[in-house]
Amino acid sequence: MSDAPRLFHAEGLAAGAVVTLSEGAHRHIQALRLAAGDAVTLFAGDGWEWPAELVQVGKRVSVAKLRPAQMRDRESPLVVTLVQGICAADRMDWVVQKATELGVSAIRPIVTQRTIIRLSSERQERREQHWQAIAVSACEQCGRNRVPTVHPGLSLTDFLAIEAPAEAPPELRVMLLPGAERRLADLVPQGGAPQGPVSVAIGPEGGFADLEESLLASRGYQAVRLGPRTLRTETAPLAALAVMQSLWGDL
Q1: More confident residue, 214 or 122
Q2: Are β-strands 149-150 and 39-43 bridged in parallel, bridged antiparallel, or unpaired?
Q3: Which of residues 49, 71, 93 is at a domain's end?
Q4: pLDDT band at 3 (very low <50, low <70, confident <90, very high)
Q5: Kind of pairing, strands 48-57 and 70-71?
Q6: Helix-strand-coil split of the chain, %, nearest 5
Q7: What letter would DSSP give residue 184?
Q8: Strand, helix or coil at 235?
Q9: Same domain, yes or no, for 223 and 112?
Q10: Nearest CA to 44 among 28, 21, 65, 78?
Q11: Do 22 and 117 share a structural domain?
């Protein structure tokens, strides 16, 4: 991976093009104290990287000239959707950032019975945009050229209503529950890997209510544990992703 700072920019990328960078990319350039002549790498989330040179760094805009693109695939072979009970703001930010670094493909925030944070629709939309920006920033840092989608938040029941039927193959669905009998390694024959995507559901502070566990189970979510200790809501998804990437992915 190039040592040049990586910047997300979604429009006008073509070899030889001179582009005015997005406001977010410009702020990043200012924070790094870059100047005209410095090298950067642009990406738009489609798997390609664009080596570029800054030709202008002003107070309000930055401009870069692009070189030919290169395909750089740093995605895990394991396609994981994180179904995360919305937790306190700083904890949720942490989950989105670190899950992106660990290769998650999508994040579905859900509101459950024990969700503490309750936002108006307008504030929720702003929060979702904030989480998506965190995912972009994490991709800039970790080298991913495909940005995981942070889906709009839904109640657990509304989310399960749009899920495919539990018997729809091939997909592995798991929910993390302290005290569950099985471990992640028990779900797939030793040396094997899931034959399709994986969804992992984690409750908010306080976990899932009993009825919610039953609803998830009815949609094919299998209860698993992560050792004998009870992990916090912001720790559990990262531990689960690390274990799954080690068992079946690219760690």
Answers
A1: 214
A2: unpaired
A3: 71
A4: confident
A5: antiparallel
A6: 30, 25, 45
A7: G
A8: coil
A9: yes
A10: 21
A11: no
* Domain co-membership, 58 together with 170: no
Q: What is the pLDDT of residues 50-96, one digit of tens each?
A: 999 999 999 999 999 999 999 988 999 999 999 999 988 799 999 99
pTM, full prediction: 0.91
Same domain, 62 and 146: no
Read off the pLDDT of each residue in 11-33 and give the average, rounded to a whole number.
91
Same domain, yes or no: 216 and 244: yes
Q: Find the CATH number of the domain harbouring 29.
A: 2.40.240.20
Query: Amino acid identity, residue 231?
Result: L
| Same domain, yes or no: 154 and 134 | yes
Measured torsion, CA atoms of residues 25, 29, 31, 34, in degrees rounded to the nearest 10:
170
Domain interval for residue 35? 6-71
Helix spans in 89-209 (H): 89-101, 121-142, 156-162
Q: Are 160 and 216 in contact (CB under 8 A)?
A: yes
- Between the alpha carbon of residue 41 and those of residues 2, 64, 222, the distances in Å are 8, 10, 41
Q: What angle do CA 241, 128, 150 make, to 5 degrees?
A: 40
**pLDDT surpassing 60 at residue 118:** yes
Q: Looking at the 3D structure of the chain, how many domains does it have?
A: 2
